[in-house]
Design a protein that fits this description.
Length: 348
């Protein structure tokens, strides 16, 4: 039977795969990408985890711009001259490179827009910003927004392999915070603009200088406002897409053990609170039955944890993926895991 996860992936354009550290997020996100590509979809697989390992898993070099990871020749369908094949492109967001690029761009804008006497302070501000907490997160978020924007245009599915839960929830909440922050800045800007106009209306100091200098100031204001507004629009769009249940879903990966179950319940609650649709839970590395005493005992413990999970989240869609033998690296291993999701696997 096809997994809920694959069905959810086929119905959405944007998918986030998250969960506790080490439960199999990267493996399952990759297997899902491959399974969708085999169904003919063009998939962009994006790792947002600073500790990337897409490259390790796919056994090739993956970096900060997209590389082709798999091409799946499709069937020749009725009425179509060419086969409709899917593919997987992968990219690993590099937060430091993103921050440096971002600050360089902001620096150029600031040097152009700010009066000479403020530039020293601005440079110091940028140098601090490079190391400030939150800088990496907002850079990653900016790249997520970009990947969603360009990815939904050029691909059928944008699939994010995310960092362990806490980090990802903060990230999901950020578009909201950043939009509010920019709105506040814009509101201040509005006030000072109106203040300037008022002064001019009264024939006060703002109009006394007259002419060119004033016009330059208001041009700078307009440009600054535009930069802020573009950023705000980008985050607002991301927030809209992430909150749109027809477009976006979140998959929680876990293993059937006490801590991952507890953390998944928290994650489910936090995401739902943020208006994010949790499409399905994928219980990974299930121990087999009938394979000796040790594994039978493990499976029994897992059953208890799953019963608890089901009781806490009645109605939630739940997949089970078996523990596979051998190391999960390279095309063959990924194919095996993908087969578990399409229902063609051993446990199928
Ligand atoms: N179904 C499975 N059967 C056997 N091994 C698995 C299975 N799924 C994942 N693994 C193995 O579990 C380990 C963790 O998997 P993975 O790296 O995908 O987890 P992760 O959640 O992305 O980890 P991190 O939080 O560190 O990013 C890897 O060694 C992987 O090969
Ligand atoms: Mg991972």
């Amino acid at each position: 039977m096809t997994s809920h996860a694959l069905r959810v992936a086929a119905q959405r354009r944007v998918l986030f795969v998250g969960g506790k550290g080490g439960v199999g997020k990267t493996s399952l996100a990759s297997a899902l990408a491959l399974a969708r590509a085999r169904q003919g979809a063009r998939v962009l697989l994006v790792s947002t985890d600073p500790a990337h390992n897409l490259g390790h898993l796919w056994d090739r070099t993956v970096g900060d711009s997209a590389v082709r990871l798999a091409i799946c020749p499709g069937d020749v369908r009725a009425g179509q001259a060419e086969s409709v094949g899917g593919y997987v492109d992968g990219l690993e967001i590099d937060p430091q490179r993103t921050v440096d690029r971002h600050l360089a761009a902001v620096g150029v804008t600031m040097r152009r827009l700010l009066p000479e006497r403020m530039r020293g302070a601005a440079e110091r501000h940028l140098a601090l910003a490079r190391e400030a907490p939150g800088t990496h997160e907002s850079a990653v978020l900016e790249r997520i927004a970009e990947a969603v924007e360009t990815g939904t245009r050029d691909y059928d599915l944008v699939l994010f392999d995310t960092a362990p839960s806490g980090h990802t929830v903060r990230l999901m909440a950020l578009p909201e915070q950043l939009t509010v922050w920019t709105e506040t800045l814009l509101a201040n800007r509005d006030r000072s603009d109106r203040f300037g106009e008022a002064l001019q209306g009264l024939g006060g100091s703002a109009s006394r200088g007259g002419g060119r200098a004033d016009r330059r100031t208001s041009e700078r204001h307009a440009e600054l406002r535009q930069v802020l507004e573009r950023r705000q629009q980008r985050f607002a769009r991301l927030r809209d897409v992430v909150g749109d249940h027809e477009l976006t879903a979140f998959l929680i990966v876990l293993t059937a053990e006490r801590l991952p179950v507890a953390e998944s319940l928290d994650l489910h609650e936090q995401l739902s609170g943020l208006g994010v649709d949790v499409g399905a839970l994928v219980v990974n590395r299930r121990s087999p039955s009938g394979a000796g005493e040790v594994l039978a005992a493990r499976r029994e413990q897992e059953d208890t944890q799953l019963a608890l999970l089901r009781a806490r989240l009645p109605g939630v869609l739940l997949d089970e993926v078996p523990l596979l033998p051998g190391e999960l690296v390279g095309d063959v291993a990924l194919s095996g895991l993908a087969a578990e999701l399409t229902g063609a696997g051993r446990a199928g």
